[in-house]
Amino acid sequence: MIEKALSDADVELVTTLHGDEQVSFVVLMQPRGKQDELLRALDDVALGHLDQAVHEHDEHDGNGPSLAGESLEHSLRHLQRAGAEAVGEVVEQQPLVRLREVVEENRADEVLVLTSPHFVEEFFHRDWASRARHEVGVPVLKLFASDS
Length: 148
Known about the structure:
Layout: H1 8-15, E1 24-29, H2 37-46, H3 50-54, H4 64-81, E2 85-90, H5 95-106, E3 111-115, H6 119-123, H7 128-133, E4 140-144
């Protein structure tokens, strides 16, 4: 599960986690919606990014799904270029339900949640990885996405 396009560093990280073993990915793109604006603004303040906190609401101009789709396609291309099998989808509604379905349909061995730090959500265990651990029935590994 990702929130933004994978960088080259992110792709290298996830494709090398299991050494030379062939891996495949089902990428679920969960764009952060309007309901998360306050939490993101608090995270920005905690990280000292005051300018981002002030402009947090400017990120969402109604083009979320197309931006999310472009980010997903970018990520899938990068994973495939790195030699991994990769398919994916944008998940707007009930992401944990869809994640559980994908794990069951694909008999997944583990779930990777690649995210930026979200201190407020993490403190209250409301981040995607914490919530997924109670839903999917396989190990959930939380990784922090590269800023590049």
